[in-house]
Amino acid sequence: MNTAINYFYWQLLLTPKKIISRIKTFLIFGLEFFSVKETILNIFSPWKREIIDYGKGFNIERYIEAITSNIISRVIGFVMRLFLLAFFIVYEIAVLIFGTIILILYTTYPFIAVGLIIISFKYL
Fold first, then answer.
1. Helices 15-33/60-122 angle, 10° precision
2. Distance, CA of 87 to CA of 91 (rounded, Å)
3. Domain residues for 32?
4. Contact partners, residue 85, CB within 8 Å, separation at least 6
5. How many CA atoms lie within 13 A of 72 on its CB side?
6. Cα separation of 61 and 33, whole Å?
7. Structure confidence by residue, pLDDT tens digits, 67-120
8. Based on the structure, what is the number of domains in the chain?
9. What is the rounded CA–CA span in Å between residue 78 and residue 44?
10. 7-64 tens-digit pLDDT
């Protein structure tokens, strides 16, 4: 009887704790891999730090060209960082969904197996 208690202790308490710990590890990995903190802090920075200098003196054509180029560079940077954050959110949701499914299946598997064995005897 002690072996059965140890099995259920391992199956229903120890291993689910490890699975939850792995899920947390994957979630933290996502934060680091997608550099979420840095991305949010620099969301409006120019793409690849491309900035056009205004030049010396006052040349209206050069000034307008620099402003439009810098605005376009910031818009491209914003869009790319927005996509990065969207991929991060998709990753985190996928980890939570798959982790929850794995946790539920692992925890209920022994009961499902015993139930299926009992049902199979009915059809013998």
1. 160
2. 6
3. 2-122
4. 34, 36, 39, 40
5. 7
6. 42
7. 888 888 889 889 999 999 999 999 999 999 999 999 999 999 988 998 999 999
8. 1
9. 5
10. 888 888 899 999 999 999 999 999 999 989 998 998 888 777 666 666 677 778 888 8
Alpha helices in 1-124 (DSSP H): 2-9, 15-33, 36-41, 60-122
Q: Whose CA is closest to 19, among 103, 123, 98, 116?
A: 103
Which of 99, 81, 109 lies closest to 10 in space, CA to CA? 109
State CA 5 to chain mean position distance: 37
- Token pair for 109: 């598997």
pTM listed for this prediction: 0.79
